[in-house]
Amino acid sequence: MVSEPHRLAWLLLWVTPALWSSNYLIARAADGVIAPHLLALLRWTLALLLLLPFSWRALVREPRGWLREWPQLLVLGGLGMWICGAFVYIGARTTSALNIALIYAVAPVGIAVCGVRLLHERMSAAQRLGAALAVAGVLYVIARGDVGNLIAVRFALGDAWIVAASVSWIAYSVLSQRWKSVLPPAARTAAVVAGGVLVLLPFTLLEAWAAPQPPWSARAALLVVLAALLPGALSYTAYAIVQRELGAARTGLMLYLAPLYAALLAWALLGEPPRGYHVVGAALILPSIWLATRR
Questions:
Q1: How is 45-73 classified by DSSP, letter by letter?
Q2: Where do the DSSP E strands lie in 21-155?
Q3: Which pLDDT belongs to residue 249?
Q4: Distance from C-alpha of 227 to C-alpha of 224, rounded to nearest angstrom
Q5: Are 98 and 138 in contact (CB under 8 A)?
Q6: Are the C-beta atoms of 89 and 30 separated by less than 8 Å?
Q7: Per-residue CA distances from 154 to 96, 100, 157, 218, 246 (Å)
Q8: How far apart are CA 8 and CA 208, in angstroms?
């Protein structure tokens, strides 16, 4: 008998990557409009304000919990909101979406390996096959159906920032599962976001002091709101629920859906229609998620 929380987690498994993939478009649009650390700080401050109405009761009921967990909350906030936030916006200035997708394609493998080795999670033969199919599907999409495109990829300075963000996401995923919390997912997410805001604040001030800032504009405000809602409060809360029900290894595999969703977003927002390689990639990736999440 499948429980209701497990059904919800299975549904969110398919929704969350769509929310995350919106961050690629936001990162590209933010260049020259708003500074990276300021965007990350305002994004997560607004996300925290959105989360508190749904989580403050749990935080008030469990003050000893989050007070005892505050070092972990700061670490998770630094990994998930600072490095996985500002670093992506910095890297997007000098690298391509192809390179970002290629680098982030490694993250689910790292999460799965760490989940098995460090968290003692088990992956069946079917789940390992699903992971392999997902890798093949993502690489096919990234290569646009031609292996020569993978060989021709050139790495730029911005890729180092994306590599750091990808490694940080692996650490965030594994540690958030390894460090058990007395708080429910929404409340813990709010506490982690609060930790991330505290970590981001001094780096944002340093950024403002070290370099001139773009003038504030309506477009900058829109980017902050979108970043706070889509790849912010909604996606991180959904990720916490999915990870609690499915574990770090299987949850990490949903990152493979992001390139497909990014292609659909580009079609809807930028008028770029999907190509044949997207169809082939989807044919590999979608069944692989079903295999990887089977109990």
A1: HHHHHHHHHHHHHHHHH-HHHHHHTHHHH
A2: none
A3: 63
A4: 5
A5: no
A6: yes
A7: 10, 12, 10, 35, 36
A8: 42
- In this predicted structure, what is the pLDDT of residue 253? 65
Contact 166, 103 (CB under 8 A): yes
Residue 36, classed as helix, strand or coil, is helix
Neighbours of 178 (CB within 10 A): 13
114, 132, 103: which is closest to 249 by C-alpha? 114
Q: What is the largest CA-CA distance in the chain?
A: 58
Residue 213: exposed, middle, or buried by beta-carbon count in 10 A (0-12, 13-18, 19+)?
exposed
Cβ-contact 107, 20 below 8 angstroms: no
Distance CA 73, CA 114 (A): 20
| Burial degree of 115 (CB within 10 A; 0-12, 13-18, 19+) | buried
Residues of the chain predicted below pLDDT 70: 1-2, 96-102, 105-106, 109, 112-113, 115-124, 126-127, 134, 138, 141-144, 150, 152-156, 248-250, 252-256, 259-260, 263, 266, 270-274, 278, 282, 285-286, 288-295
Provide the whole-model pTM. Answer: 0.80
